[in-house]
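Dataset card, provenance and construction

Sequences and ligand SMILES were collected as paired inputs. For each pair, a complete structure of the chain with the small molecule in place was predicted and serialized as structure tokens. The example below shows a pair involving pyridoxal-5'-phosphate. Curators did not alter the output after generation; any descriptive sentences attached to a record were derived from the structure itself.
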Amino acid sequence: MPFAPTDYLPYDFANRRHIGPSPEEMAAMLGVVGAASLDTLIDETVPDDIRQDEPLNLGRAMSESELLLHMRRVAGRNKVMTSLIGMGYHDTITPPAIQRNVFENPAWYTAYTPYQPEISQGRLEALLNFQTMVSDLTGLDVANASLLDEATACAEAMTMAQRGAKSKATAFFVDKNCHPQNIALIRTRAAPLGIEVIVGAPEDLDPAAVFGAIFQYPGTYGGLRDFSAPIAALHEHKAVGIIAADPLALTLLKEPGAMDADIAVGSMQRFGVPLGYGGPHAAYLACKDAYKRSLPGRIVGVSVDSHGNPAYRLSLQTREQHIRREKATSNVCTAQALLAVMASFYGVFHGPKGLKAIAQRIHRKTARLARGLEEAGFDVEPEEFFDTITVKVGPMQGVVLKSAVAEGINLRPVGDDRVGIALDECTRPETVEAVWRAFGITRRDDDLAAYYRVPLELVRTSDFMTHPVFHMNRAETEMMRYMRRLSDRDLALDRAMIPLGSCTMKLNSAAEMMPVSWPEFSRIHPFAPEDQVQGYRQLISDLSDTLCTITGYDAMSMQPNSGAQGEYAGLLTIAAFHRANGDDQRKICLIPTNAHGTNPASAQMCGLQVVTVKCTARGDIDVEDFRRKAEAAGDRLAACMITYPSTHGVFERTVREVCEITHAFGGQVYLDGANLNAMVGLSRPGKIGADVSHLNLHKTFCIPHGGGGPGMGPIGVKAHLAPHLPGHPFSGGAEGPVSGAPYGSPSILPISWAYCLMMGGDGLTQATKVAILNANYIAKRLESAYPILYKGDNGRVAHECILDTRPFADHGVTVDDIAKRLIDHGFHAPTMSWPVSGTLMVEPTESETKAELDRFCDAMLAIRAEIDAIAAGEMDRDNNPLKNAPHTTSDLIAEWNRPYSREAGCFPVGAFRVDKYWPPVGRVDNVYGDRHLVCTCPPLESYQDAAE
Ligand SMILES: *Cc1c(COP(=O)(O)O)cnc(C)c1O
């Protein structure tokens, strides 16, 4: 016998995938922290009265191979059909080069939002390409770098119009040819703001009665019209004209700018982003120059770096709209960066001619399809169209839809006597023939001459996408290298820890990511018939159950596409609850000063009045101030919004009391769940007094950050709020929708589900404990160099800690200098100046190993030594490695006349030598960029140097 049974090695690596420190490393770290065991540390950190008494029970954890088999089975319950339903969602071909090099590439999907421009030049360039493409296609001056979906973009455009219009009218006009989900969402957004929504045909528009109007182009039933006349009429009455346009159609059709539209919105989904049962997809919003200062979402702009070379960065007023709190114009934080990047590469990949060819091909097929139907005696509307037609079928509607399904095709039921058909890039001649057969027509798709049915006066005459980037040699070799070059400029999780407080940049494991690309998840239309989406329904319902078990809530809504959307949805749910109780007067929302900016921004979007509550010197909510303000609000108290553990990185002992006070005055407790990574398995928000929370699945539950999205912000609620959760025109419910699709962005839900299934209850709980250990380890190692701003009663921090850097101001060292110097060490900076100005907030997560934590701590300590040298006068106050950071290769090769060595500047102690990360640009000048706002690709020669 080669070995005895007692020689068998235990296999205990199941959770080692996700949890960084090994058992031996944890023991060493506990020694540093000064805790006898992990459980002792947790007992000292998490207050008794909020601990859950029974362990989290989610059944046995699955291995990776079990998980993938399980996912295959669930995916198999979805039926991949050819969906010609349209309504803003079209099948598309993701070029394999983009699928492999971007969509499935951690260098792209694990990046953070590009707040640190020096380490984000690659994705900033891709996003600038996106803006340039949108701006060109729509014929408008400025575009942002994505919104959550087309429907929310319509609503954002409405509120932009309300702010920007000189008209004093309070109503908003919506073309009845808008997609139904767009109309429904506009209604949801309008109601709490007191905006009256008028839905009608464009010819019924009374321009004097509205501050703005939105038209769909092409219309949801395929109609095309020139909106120049209604927009001119709107302008005469100082109102704003908005067009929701299909960007692919705009390659053939007269653009919104040429109709003098002020704003254009739409979805970039059909630019290579899979349907995914509704998302994630990038929406766009473009506007005339005059409106650019109130654009929601993020805008990439061009500035200069310390060498005077062009460099990209997020432009100031949109770097974070929501930092203006209740004065913010929008709560958009996480958007759809990764999907915008994919769409932008799709544009680069095809170029303007390629896009036009795709659009023409789709149009020709639609024209042939229509001709075939007409020749068989069917009544086809409209006469002229791009890719969408509506066929009158009378009482035959059911039969036609059913025969289509038998052919593997989903068509759209319109009313009870018509059928809608929208063709797309994937439509083949056989598809057209199969559609004909569904109508009882047998003919081949090769006996019809090609002809056009676009109205002559709507044919596009202007150029678009003339920038060289859209005209590069498109051999795949070049494309592959362009994508690689851009991702190499960036620092994402695949290279180093991203210790961002409150953002929980943890591992997005490969096994979790794989199912997202499977056609059974990616090629499903959001409005596909129920029996085709049983796999999705199982996934959504099981994941909801799991999240309810974890949070102690009774019901979940998967609709919100980000944390901030979750806040908005949760507050609307609370408002609907108050209304149902006849408490319409409850309009006050208490929010502590340390809240995330999206909290007050969401509250104001719900028409709530924000009352700010103080924090004590220790960083906790000032309970007396809270009580006073709740009392003053009395029966006008709608809600409070608290974050737990607090954004100060502490488990406050008073959280139950704060909830009780709120309830005593009839208010509801909104608990911002962004910090749930410190609670899973230890404490449940739904059991400590909260009524509703959003969970950031892109933080705690492993959906990658994508460079600024996608995200998912489902909300959990207690039973009494469940009837008031967001509804949807296609899935029912009493309330209106907050997203275009009924379940938000379902195609990324497999990631969070896989995480839970592979961790199990014990694994998830262990992750929480280790996240807390890692944070306390960093706090301990750094506290002598950087004061830890806030700690709990026992001197412990939660899963993150705030390092105070304000004392160094005396030596001229700012938080910016430290952040940029970290780049020389190969790190992404922690969260800067939030929630306290002049500080750094560090959240290591459970995924980082001791070695990586030590590397980070060593870097921070080396920086502290440099600060000491400045303080001691050994280093120049203005010309030192901190002030000149980050150091680039041009610094290295240029004449070196600095009072410290090249070595000290470029290779600080502990930084990698061979694997050194070189930022492509020096420190970026934000002020310059904001004074000279340039938001489309500059001419090539102006940034040749930076690109080399
Ligand atoms: C991230 C975060 C949010 C917002 O979430 P998004 O998905 O970016 O909209 C809200 N609150 C807190 C505390 C957060 O950290």
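Derived descriptions for this record:
The chain has 28 helices and 26 strands.
The radius of gyration is 28 Å.
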